[in-house]
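Hey, resending since the last one bounced:
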Amino acid sequence: MDYMAGAAALIGLCLSSILTLAILHWMVAHQHARLTVAWLFAAALLVVLQSLEFLYHAAELYQRWPLFLKIIDPLVVLMPLCLYGYIRALLGENLFSHLRTRFLHLSPAIVVALLALPYWSLPAADKVYWMQQVLIEESRWQPLAPFGNVYLAIIASLSLVYWWRQQQQGCRGRKVALQQWIAQLQRVQLIIATSLFARIVFSEISGVYPSVVYALAPGTAYLLYIVLVRAQLPMPKSGPKSGPKNESKAVLATMPSPVAPTPELALANPVAQPVPAADDQQSAFDSLQQALTAGAFRDHHLSLASLAHQCGLSSHQASAAINQCHGNNFYDLLNEHRIHAARQALVESNDTVSAICYAVGFNSKSTFNTAFRRLTGCTPTQYRQQHK
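The structure tokens again:
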């Protein structure tokens, strides 16, 4: 658990929620700059959704409601577009005025959604399984849906493309204040792209996958600096004039960050729990092992929380005991018991591979085959042929 990243996510949720409400109020209360505020509102809402996903993972709610796993990925991909749309709206342009350009700008999100369809259609236990695997190492991810560096590369590339497009279009002939403000927003896009690409290169070279919240920290820090200290919010070129000047200052204080941290961020429980002693952890692990050996692993919906409850432990105690005494996570331990039972059944019975797969607790044959090959080095059919 990364407590610093968890605190950042919680603060981000609070600030983005206040920001969203402030922008919504401004859009409803005033008739000017509706398009401009709409892009701001969209960006703030995406930050809220991403922050909620962080808390969703931190509280391990994906085990109870796996339906929401990676469900907002196609929306978060639109973050760079929201910032670019805001810039163009300041210059009096509507990106969605033509159907063709609308489809072009939305196409990355559509592609991500189409790639994620196979993952969304997986059984709930398989979704949780793959999410647990990437918490150990991102390279274990096998579904087609973009994840880790691939997902970050999409967002970074879009940020770079929109930065380049705005550089080409420019804002010549506009007021100096507007030019300066757009230049600052452009630097934010460039910092986001650079920091994400730096994280990708570092992780590919070193094999270490640092939390994206740290890769995005430079962009966030710069954005806060220009908004809170230096920025002067310009009015769009066209449209009726706004109300009192202090209204624009109030909006300035609530401008959103376009930074889009990825769903891999691990969020900690803010309430610290005591770490059990070594003897206590061994005792807890023995209880978990006994429950699994007794057949708990055959439950298709078995989770760390439910197994811990059976043994009179908290999820935190069970996870710590497994990590300390087994060296891996809950799903690795669970799969070992399931594959052990499957190996026995393959040798001692004439049941089909599919029947054995479901009998030992797996929800899909593809997941069973993957886990079996990883632990034995061969497929279930090959194992049966070798030992019959």
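Residues 230-235, 237-276 have pLDDT under 50 and may be disordered.

Sorry for the duplicate.
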